[in-house]
Amino acid sequence: MLNKLAGAIFLLFFIACNGNACHNRQERLLSVMIDSFCHQKLELRDSLYVNYTMKVWRDSDFYAWGNLQKYVRMKNDEIEHYVSCVFYSPDRLKAIFCAGEKMPNAYDSVCKDTVIDRIAPNAADTIYSLYALLAYRDHVNDPWTICSPWQRLVSCYNTGEQAYRELMHYLFVEHKNISMFHSVQTGKNKGKTEGIPFGYNIQDKDFWSKCWLWEKDSVMSEKGLYPFQEYDGYFKRIFNKDSGKYITVEFMKDLEYPKIDYPKEILDMYYK
Known about the structure:
about 25% strand
């Protein structure tokens, strides 16, 4: 009986160890793939442009960013903005900036000085967050149109490396299977809103050309917005040629972004 029990325990230990080893091998392979793929050099002008954009969004209390100094005991100037890495499309007209913030794990402005009253109660004294900012432009020497993150953000990590690995896992492993609502552009279901998987991870060859993330909406958008720009809907009366009548149609609109007056030194790096 004892021999059987010992054998069962050994078998369970063996399976667990091999399972962990397999998981570790997968993580190592993923790490090698990420490190080999994240070799694109971030342009200095893009780094300055993205960091300045994030700072203005914070100071403006924009959308999900929030003016933190209104809510916690710290100044926005204590936030360090940085770009961890960048993915440029082959024509360099699209990009994903993995933009980060390093900040004190500050206390709530109105509560007591206890652990639970901090931004992240279970985190370290300094915390890191990363955002996948999608951007596009018409020409390679144009400044970017940067869009607020609508997909994945990782927040309140103890180290920048932890936040980086979490965001990379999403982009390299999870992204293709994530579904989001999007209006069907062609076929019998044209105009219907369905949950559609992205279908591609960032390292896939056709990510920039075939992922619907980069397909402008010609159905629900009057202005041909990208899906990641569509924030809210509005209704408009239009004339339907087929029926000869006016009908009410819903269209999508973008967020109202704060106006940003970029420093001349940054803009001069683009307009050559």
